[in-house]
Specification:
about 270 residues, alpha/beta, Rossmann fold, 8-stranded mixed β-sheet, 3-stranded antiparallel β-sheet, binds 2-amino-2-deoxy-6-O-phosphono-alpha-D-glucopyranose
Length: about 270
């Protein structure tokens, strides 16, 4: 059972998303993280059962761990077959060795690809090795690969605390495409936990762009916990612009923000 509230109510009060002609971003608040995760996993399962060759846009980060665990459970216990889906991950660090435990490919292998038995030939990441020497070619190739696959059916997204989506850091334009960029200080600090020390966190990454994300036919954004409450508020009600790239999601016709009560704590009842 989820409590469903929509930020559309705010538009009726005359907030600036209505004034700017942008659609409001629907926010769905679940009582617990597990309930939210179960809902989103069910949506993915329904899509894949209907369309076994669905094209999924995948994200990494702590937010996704429980969701992927639920997909693995659906695969093991309920026969969800993910072997024919094609996946495109949002981003990858530059400068890590292939196979390094901190690459996003390693993350995906551990949490989803291996336990849910995806066909690795259908899993895609931006080529971070090539990006280090020829960033433009690596970026163009990834955009071309997504387009050649027919575009993303369902894009999963987490939120950086500074409003980044993928690695589209503050300053990223709505029109931005796959590219190499340097990581914001706060992003590197937030990644210190997984790397052990700030000095070990890469300084650059290759990420799909905001425009690439907005072209996905459906976008499911997830945010959990008190530490995401501020960025959730800014995403839904703040000024739309590059300062908080997640605000651009309000221009998407079919995007939903799934949050638990802690992440929604600044959103409603103000
Ligand atoms: C990372 C990823 C993003 C992710 C975000 C939040 O750096 N590039 O795709 O959404 O930061 O991470 P977490 O879920 O761990 O809070």
């Amino acid at each position: 059972m989820t409590i469903q509230e929509s930020s559309r109510a705010r538009s009726a009060e005359g907030d600036d998303s209505a004034a700017s002609g942008l659609g409001a971003l629907e926010a769905v608040v679940g009582p617990t993280r597990s309930v939210v995760v179960a809902d989103v996993a069910q949506e993915i399962a329904d899509l894949v059962r209907e369309r076994p060759e669905a094209i999924l846009g995948l994200a990494t980060g702590g937010t996704m761990v429980e969701l992927y665990a639920e997909l693995v459970r659906l695969h093991r216990d309920e026969g969800l077959d993910l072997s024919r889906v094609t996946t495109f991950n949002l981003d990858e660090y530059l400068g890590l060795d292939e196979g390094d435990a901190n690459t996003f490919r390693s993350f995906m292998e551990e949490h989803l690809f291996e336990p849910a038995e995806l066909d690795r030939a259908r899993t895609n990441f931006p080529d971070s090795t090539r990006a280090a020497t020829d960033p433009l070619a690596a970026s163009r190739e990834y955009e071309d690969a997504i387009a050649a696959a027919g575009g993303i059916d369902l894009q999963l997204l987490g939120l950086g605390r500074n409003g980044h989506i993928g690695f589209n850091e503050p300053g990223s334009l709505r029109e931005s495409r796959t590219r190499v960029l340097t990581l914001a200080a706060r992003t590197r600090e937030d990644a210190t936990g997984t790397f052990g020390a700030l000095a070990d966190v890469p300084t650059a990454a290759i990420t799909v762009g905001v425009a690439t994300i907005l072209e996905a036919r459906r976008v499911c954004i997830l945010a959990f916990g008190e530490r995401k409450a501020e960025v959730v508020l800014r995403t839904v009600t703040g000024d739309v612009g590059p300062e908080v790239p997640s605000t651009f999601l309000r221009g998407h016709a079919d995007a939903v923000l799934h949050v638990d009560t802690a992440a929604a704590s600044q959103l409603f009842g103000r």
